[in-house]
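Quick one: structure tokens for this chain, please?
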Amino acid sequence: MKPINVGLLGIGTVGGGTFTVLDRNAAEITRRAGRPIRITKVADKNLALAKQVVGDRAEITDDAFAVVEDPSIDIVVELIGGYGVAKELVLRAIANGKHVVTANKALLAVHGNEIFAAARDKGVMVGFEAAVAGGIPIIKALREGLSANRIEWIAGIINGTTNFILSEMRDKGLSFAEVLVEAQRLGYAEADPTFDVEGVDAAHKLTIMSAIAFGIPMHFAEAHVEGISQLAADDIKYAEQLGYRIKLLGITRRTDEGVELRVHPTLIPAKRLIANVEGAMNAVLVKGDAVGPTLYYGKGAGAEPTASSVIADLVDVTRMHTADPEHRVPHLAFQPDAVVDLPILPLAEITTSYYLRLRVEDKPGVLADITRILAEQHISIDAMIQREPGEGEEQTDIIMLTHQTREKQIDAAIAKIEALSAVRAPLIRLRLEELL
């Protein structure tokens, strides 16, 4: 049977992994897909690198547009990244009637609505399994495996860099800054780690999962995004004493009022499986009404794990290449005319539990003032630690866990607590999820 011809844009880590795995497992992949899948053209600005990886097994060019304009190419794999030329190339490929496979979570989170609309108009497919959680097949699970369920919520460790940093901070008692240097030395963190450590990368991935889970458009601009750069080792230690681990979670939940879409450091009970995901690994916990909680765990990055997802999409596209577009799995799981634009809840309206750490003067009456303010906002305390001050110390830490309450009530309480003369530093507030 005639092979499917693939044009590969970008031969870096993931592109090289894709070329290698597709070549190594060609016979097995052909058995699954029903016809051979071959990369016939590769575009990369670094021609020497491309030659080193590809050799004479495919045509090499430094002009990516030559690939998307080539009439012999059936599927374009975009592994360039970013919002700029990648968007132009993807839209040009779609306009030329080519299917697209991409690992570009940033592009889809910001421009996915436009890209999917263009693909529907041309009757082509856009595969993006590799855009979320590397080699974990979470997109297929949400879009197909859980299609009988009303998805209630998703909570994911979806950035390996931050999970590695938090694991090291907990294990070694080091500061964020100290562990970041080590993460950069080991290659887990970029020279500029902002997208990772400030939660932007996780928010891109969460936006995509939320759209598929709830049948809504991409809403990246409305996501609450908070990273780990300000997280103190003391809070990791106190959380541990209370029976919790701190992870950077992407959380999306459907409520009667709208959809929560938020990324932030979160306390999770240490007994939960997801709380014990360490190092650079990823995990996504999905709660469906019929199936209950399901956990998906694995490598969230790397050449071959991500290539695994890229090639899975190539196999899917190959299988459905000649199918009626109306009978393909919709990009966002729901039929296009059934996608609804639910409101994204502002952070002030979410309901969760909280970890509060206060630095206060060690004198009578301080705790009574704090609990009175919390009671005025209808906030009840679940657990508390008061650190014994050292010899000669005049200040101490009070750590509290609250029951569930609205964020705006916590905001109001914090403002009043910080105004107390006995409170000597800004209050530290972290959110807490039981994930039941």
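The mean pLDDT is 96.
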